[in-house]
Amino acid sequence: MQEEGMEFETDKLFYNPEMRLCRSFGSLSVGAIGEELRVLDGFAASGIRGLRYAKENRNVTIVTLLDIWKIAPAIIEKNAKENGIKNAEAQNIDFNEYTVKNESDFIEIDPFGAPVHFLNNAFYSFRKMKKGYISITATDVAVLCGENTKACMKKYGAKNLRNEFTHEVGARVLLKKIGDFASQFDFGMEVLYTLSDRHYIKTLIRITRSAEKASEIPRTLGYASYCFHCGYRETGRFPNRVCKNCKKDMDYAGPLWLGELQDKKFLGKMKTLNGKRDYADKAEIGKMLELMIGEAGMPAFYYSIHEICRRGKLPYAPKTDEVIAALRKRGFKVAKTHFYERCIKTDAGIKELTKIMKQETK
Ligand SMILES: C[S@@+](CC[C@H](N)C(=O)[O-])C[C@H]1O[C@@H](n2cnc3c(N)ncnc32)[C@H](O)[C@@H]1O
Ligand SMILES: [Zn+2]
């Protein structure tokens, strides 16, 4: 196999070429952190992710790669050797067993499906440290994003919602679960980025030991109330069952992380680094980073232009740029989103937004 200048073997181990962009994204984030890092690739398979992190970033002092497949360490070590990576070691051990006894600065959690069973031990491994980084990929989007509410309640302790902004709800469900562990272990948490792409949600958080910051986490949680009749949404400490716009019943999601999803400064560093690298997905990554930077500081939950047109029975769907210009002209904050192409984030409410779009399509 080949990926971003590396030639490597996979044998019978898992390798998904579709995740190349996700691995490049992760590698940029390692580089953007800048400080020296002992990296743990806890779910390594062929090792392609962790080995790329070490090869592409000078700040990686060592990468330890784990997998429960017996054949993995020999293949990973061969891949490291053939690509001239000297600061890599591989072990055939369960992630939870390893993290009970060993410390790292940056932990990569990329299992099959839900990452929930590994969060406790990831945080436990930081118990004697002042700070650290945890990078998490969740591929159970069907659970996080509304298709299976029972499983979401069971695994994440939160209700999902199958609506137009289901992917943002999914990301906030995942972050709420991470936050539960962070506060439990007396860490504050900063979300450096949240990426929803293809069949996965990925996030990187910086944790800092602080009882005060840990107590802020539960205060950052809350609910999203949503009206399926008119598209009105609101956030708050508790769900609201009656729509303030059309007075009909509302549904809800939560508890959710209602804090920031994107750190503008950190994403800016990733963007600069992406400009210097020659990744095959450079253009797509650059576009995504730009959109994610735009999302920083915007209100939670995006609007779908198509949904507004459908509900408001508009004669045609205006272009996204036209809607953005119309909102800006009237003094609203507005940004495109990386979640979906025809969606926007704005501080305008559904009533104003529908009215403005109606005026634009007259
Ligand atoms: C999605 S794959 C990882 C893909 C890899 N990070 C990449 O980018 O190519 C998940 C891997 O985690 C391994 N795994 C599953 N449970 C594990 C555990 N508890 N501890 C360590 N490895 C585990 C599986 O054997 C599998 O190889
Ligand atoms: Zn309503």
Summarize the helices and strands and which ones pair or pack.
Elements: E1 2-3, E2 6-7, H1 20-33, E3 37-41, H2 48-56, E4 60-66, H3 72-82, E5 88-91, H4 95-101, E6 106-109, H5 119-124, E7 131-138, H6 141-144, H7 149-156, H8 166-184, E8 187-197, E9 200-209, H9 211-219, E10 221-226, E11 233-236, E12 251-257, H10 264-276, H11 282-295, E13 303-304, H12 305-312, H13 320-329, E14 334-336, E15 343-346, H14 350-360
Parallel strand pairs: 3-4, 3-6, 4-5, 6-7
Antiparallel strand pairs: 1-2, 7-9, 8-9, 10-11, 10-12, 13-15, 14-15
Helix pairs in contact: 1-2, 1-10, 8-9, 10-11, 13-14
The structure holds S-adenosylmethionine and zinc ion.
The site of S-adenosylmethionine has 21 residues, from helix 2.
What does this structure look like?
With 362 residues, this protein is α/β, with parallel strands linked by helices. It folds into 2 domains: 290 residues, Rossmann fold, CATH 3.40.50; 58 residues, Phenylalanyl-tRNA Synthetase, Chain B, domain 1 (2-Layer Sandwich), CATH 3.30.56.70. Helices cover 40% and strands 22% of the residues. The chain is built from 14 helices and 15 strands. The strands form 4 sheets. The protein has a 7-stranded mixed beta sheet, with helices on both faces. Strands 11-10-12 form a 3-stranded antiparallel beta sheet. Strands 13-15-14 form a 3-stranded antiparallel beta sheet. A hairpin with a 2-residue loop joins strand 1 and strand 2. Helix 8 runs antiparallel to helix 9 and helix 10 packs antiparallel against helix 11. The longest helix has 19 residues. The chain starts with a strand and ends with a helix. The mean pLDDT is 97. The site of zinc ion has 8 residues, from loops.
